[in-house]
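Worked problem 6 (solution included).
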Amino acid sequence: MLIMMMLLWLSGGFTSSSTDSLPPYKPKATWLWNTSLIGTSAGRTDILQFAKNQQIGCIFLQVNPEVAQSTYRSFIKAAADYDIQVHALDGAPKWALPENRQKITDLVNWVKSYNASVLDNERFGGIQVDIEPYLLPEWTADQNKVAVDWQQSLSYFHELVKKDSTLTTAAAVPFWLDNIQLPDGSGSLSEAIMAKLDETALMSYRDQALDVVTLAASEIATGNRLGKKVWISVETKSAPDTPYITFYGKGKTEMESQLALIDGVLKAQPSFTGIAVHDYTSWRALGN
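Solution. The predicted structure is:
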């Protein structure tokens, strides 16, 4: 149904050249991995002015415990003045494995401790984990086991966050998890993860709107059914071996045209939260 809607929308004459006056309906999001960029007043202002210009409503900011809490306070407070939420971000492939679950505990406890020590407008609004265990050799050796470990680690993450907290839980996930069936026959890994968390950021990385919507259609439908939020994500980092997954080298104008098309067809879907662009640094570096 979503793919059919996209085709009808495009055939109605809404081509890339006709989207210049159609800003995205939903706020965008971006990932900010280089926490050092928020270390000065000028750096914070630069980031947030860009975010305002790009209609960004949420920044996923990697947590670095070595950065002074005063720096986070200043950035989150300034972001609130721009009506931008900041969610804590961290993760690594090995976090999916039970023996590394302490990493999840440490992140959640750090965010909760930080939030408890600052004012309301200086607090993180949620936590997103980016784990991606399919990059591990263990995934190749025993995909079923690692898939279950991943699901259980995310369940642990959600339950730990929600204990004495109203923080939003989220994870970045690839679009193809709906093809991974859990070994107990309970359904797909994608649905199991979405059912547990508040949000998912779907890595539906392609450089054409129709391809993005096609990849995301199943998760959008699942999100609608489960009452969950879904960010549709695009890439701007260099990918020489797979140039079709990124807007790197294609320019901001072309990307904005494609994002407007994506938003135009998905904005009526209840689960569609907006478009997340990976990541701030490479997005900022795109040419026109």
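Discussion: The longest strand covers residues 56-62.
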